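Database export, one record per block. Field names are fixed; values are copied verbatim from the stored entry.
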Amino acid sequence: MAKDMTLLWGSGSPPCWRIQIMLEEKQLQGYNHKLLSFEKMEHKSQEVLDINPRGQLPAFKCGNHILNESYAACFFLENQYKSQGNKLIPDSPDAQALMYQRMFEVLTFHQKIVEIVTYNFRVPEEERHDSAVQRNREALTAELKLWEGYLNKTDCCLAGKEFTLADVVFFPSVAFLFRLGLSSERHPALAKYYNSLKDRASIKATWPPHWQEPPELDVMKNI
């Protein structure tokens, strides 16, 4: 099974990490994988384009099926390997509805992170506008407040006590925030969630290699 899968990925990329966590959760170790460098523009290589014509990572092939969108890959793997590894879609309608709702809200959450990171790292300093910086910060601050409220009402995971697909897609974005200097004191519920899951086997096994080094970034420290 796993030997028929190929994943081209980048270290620290939340969409790539989601698929890696998913493969661990479904006990699909032993798949073919290759770590590529964003800095060297390896995600634009022909090798990637052959699987993902958008020239983006992840590029994931499962047998004859191509699933480059992390959500698509997560759903596919859960449905194809229902009886293997951990069950990640709950049976209870209440938990299932909450899981789907939170899972798709992560798209907005992650986009607000990306907007700040992109503006900070891709727009030259002399071209940045204070109003845009402020607008992005306020949008993320409001979003974080929303998730603090959500997490204050749950046991440990997003949809209750059990780890689900919602956590597979959410955790990498949360970890990315703390990597960028998010304050645990200012965001205690997010910090508690992060600390409660960072040693989970699937997460530990797939921890981004370059994150073994201490972070030098403080993009999120004042948010």
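Remark 1: Strands lie at 5-10, 32-36, 59-62, 65-66.
Remark 2: The mean pLDDT is 91.
End of record.
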